[in-house]
Amino acid sequence: MAQRGRHVAPKAGMQKFRRAAVVVLTAGALASVGTSAAFADMLEDLPLNGDQNLDQDGQQNLNCGNSARLIRLNVAETEHRNRFCAEGDGHTRHQGARTDGSLAVGGTTLGPQTNTAQTGKQNVYCGNTADLVTVNVTGDMYWDTTCVVTDRGHHRGAHERGGHPRGARAVGGTSTGPQLNTAQTGEQNLYCGNSADTITLSVEGTISKRTTCVAADHSDGAGDTHLGRASVRPGEAVGLETNTAQDGKQNQTCGNPGTGVDVPVGQITRQASCTVHAGP
Fold first, then answer.
1. Distance separating alpha carbons of residues 27 and 30, to the nearest angstrom
2. Which of 101, 179, 182, 199 could form a disulfide with 241 if both were Cys (CB 3.0 to 4.6 A apart)?
């Protein structure tokens, strides 16, 4: 497994930008509580989502409850964002048009970008966030993402569908915001509950993000296909770029808090739990 994080912009300049942005956001949030509820509603109608590129090939690969947004604003409201994704029938999934393994290619995005490629069986990518700015004022934001994949051995295994000579490949693009490039090849590789958020501000409120990922394979596992290696090609990001490639079985990257700026004038918590089980 390989992980790399880098800043394309100079480190000192980025730190100054973050500090300045935090000051502006804090002042603005405290000064405009009375009118920002309407502004928050307006933001929801704007195309402020970043770019999320996904390609999956194989069985029981999940991508659920992830976020890449330019701005999130909550004022004096309680927001519940619950996602539950389960896969138990074992049918083959392929969300791209390729036949030689999964490939996710980033483009040019005004905002955050995620590029995710998964090849194999029970690779899980859930509850990851790459939001540029999150502001919560006198409200509560509760995010709960649960992903469960189970193979009880009652259906055809991955070895019976024919193998792909190449592994998962993620190619970074160009983004004016955080960028996550992730490739997973093999079985039961989990990438869950990681944060690449740039600025998170909570004023007299609560931001709580909780992610649970479970992969259980009770099949005999006979005749497993040997796949190519996972690979990531970095892109160009104004901000933090995280590149992760996981090969083989039961690799876990979970609950990484990232290097963004949290301003907990209220409360900000992130929790992640990852569990894998293999065998009859």
1. 5
2. 179
Classify the phi-psi angles of 259: left when phi > 0, otherwise alpha if psi is within -120 to 50, otherwise beta: alpha
Check: CB of residue 157 under 8 Å from CB of residue 218: no
DSSP state of 35: T
User: CA 226, CA 211: separation in Å to the nearest integer?
Assistant: 30
Among candidate residues 151, 145, 144, 242, the one with its CA nearest the CA of residue 188:
151
Q: Is 21 helix (H, G, I), strand (E, B) or coil?
A: helix
Give the amino acid at 191.
Y
Q: What amino acid occupies position 107?
A: G
Cα–Cα distance for residue pair 36/73, rounded to 1 Å = 9
**Cα–Cα distance for residue pair 212/220, rounded to 1 Å:** 25
| Residue 8 amino acid letter | V
What's the CA gap between 191 and 184, in Å, rounded? 9
The tokens describing 43, both together, are 């933001």
Task: Spell out the per-residue pLDDT of the chain, length 280, in tens.
Answer: 444 433 333 344 445 444 444 444 544 544 444 455 555 555 555 557 899 999 998 889 999 999 999 999 999 999 999 999 998 865 545 555 556 789 999 999 989 999 999 999 999 999 999 999 999 999 999 999 999 999 987 554 444 445 556 899 999 999 999 999 999 999 999 999 999 999 999 999 999 999 999 999 988 765 456 788 999 999 999 988 999 999 999 999 999 999 999 999 999 999 999 999 988 7
Which helix (H) or strand (E) is 16 found in, with range? helix 11-31
Which helix H or strand E contains 37, and what residues bound it?
helix 36-44
